[in-house]
Design a protein that fits this description.
Strand content: 25-35%
Radius of gyration: 17 Å
Shape: globular
Pfam families: Exo_endo_phos (PF03372)
Helix content: 10-25%
Order of helices and strands: EHEHEEEEEHEHEEEEEE
Largest sheet: 6 strands, mixed
Number of helices: 4
Strand order of the largest sheet: 3-4-2-1-14-11
CATH architecture: 4-Layer Sandwich
Distance between the termini: 5 Å
CATH class: Alpha Beta
Number of domains: 1
Structural class: alpha+beta
Protein name: Endonuclease/exonuclease/phosphatase domain-containing protein
InterPro entries: Endo/exonu/phosph_ase_sf, Endo/exonuclease/phosphatase, Sph/SMPD2-like
Number of strands: 14
């Protein structure tokens, strides 16, 4: 089974970029696609046409900006919203949370945690405390799922791989980081942030083995001839 997780970026030529992404996905061999920052149901239609099954919550605005696509039947799915805590911010409008889908024996959790606007992932930072509270909710969700059942947690966790709060969560939930030891960033480097960390993750348990690599690192051609990156993040593609 082949899986992709990708933060599709909420701003800047959104419909055009999603149209290009949709074309890539139609020609791809991905069985399951977890997307973040797809904010509107109309935008979801740009990428899911060749996938017979999908899950997302919200009539117009997608809750959490989360969309899950599958070429295999989705038996059940649900969205769980994270608590709104910490400093007031426009991010609250996204209603961040977790989208949990059951695809055969496999459970896939697509999620997007709150951003750390201080770029400080120390345990006492105000945004790290927000992320810890969100991970506590996610840990509770995972605790209710049979530990032996194959499970994947994918998405933009907005935490570096080495952050202690993320390490504590992985240990408590019995999760393995598929890209453990990989020092490459998943947020695209910029002059303003030349050495960003890996904020996107693929975590597994329940006997899953996986190989993963980064994708969408290069610029893509738009229909008008411009070349742009599909997002400010790279994607993670995995063979499970």
């Amino acid at each position: 089974m082949r899986l992709l997780t990708f933060n599709a970026l909420i701003k800047g030529d959104v419909r055009v970029r999603l149209g290009v992404l949709g074309g890539i996905l139609r020609e791809s061999d991905f069985d399951i696609v977890c997307l973040q920052e797809v904010m509107y149901r109309a935008h979801a239609d740009l990428v899911r046409r060749e996938f017979p099954h999908s899950a997302c919550a919200g009539m117009v605005v997608l809750k959490g900006g989360l969309l899950l696509l599958s070429r295999r039947p989705i038996e059940r799915w649900r969205f769980v919203r994270y608590p709104m805590s910490g400093p007031m911010r426009t991010e609250f409008l996204m209603r961040k949370g977790a989208l949990i889908a059951e695809i055969g024996d496999l459970v896939v959790v697509n999620t997007h945690l709150s951003a750390n606007r201080d770029d400080d992932w120390s345990p006492t930072n105000r945004y790290t405390l927000v992320e810890r509270a969100e991970l506590d909710v996610l840990a509770g969700i995972l605790a209710d799922i049979d530990q032996s059942r194959p499970l994947v947690v994918a998405g933009d966790l907005n935490l570096p791989r080495t952050a202690s709060v993320l390490a504590d969560f992985r240990t408590a939930a019995g999760l393995t980081d598929v890209l453990a030891g990989d020092a490459r960033p998943t947020y695209r480097p910029t002059p303003r942030w030349p050495e960003p960390p890996a904020l996107d993750h693929l975590l597994v348990r329940g006997g899953i083995t996986a190989r993963a690599d980064l994708v969408f690192q290069d610029e893509m051609a738009l229909p008008d001839g411009r070349r742009v990156h599909l997002s400010d993040h790279y994607g993670i593609a995995a063979d499970i």
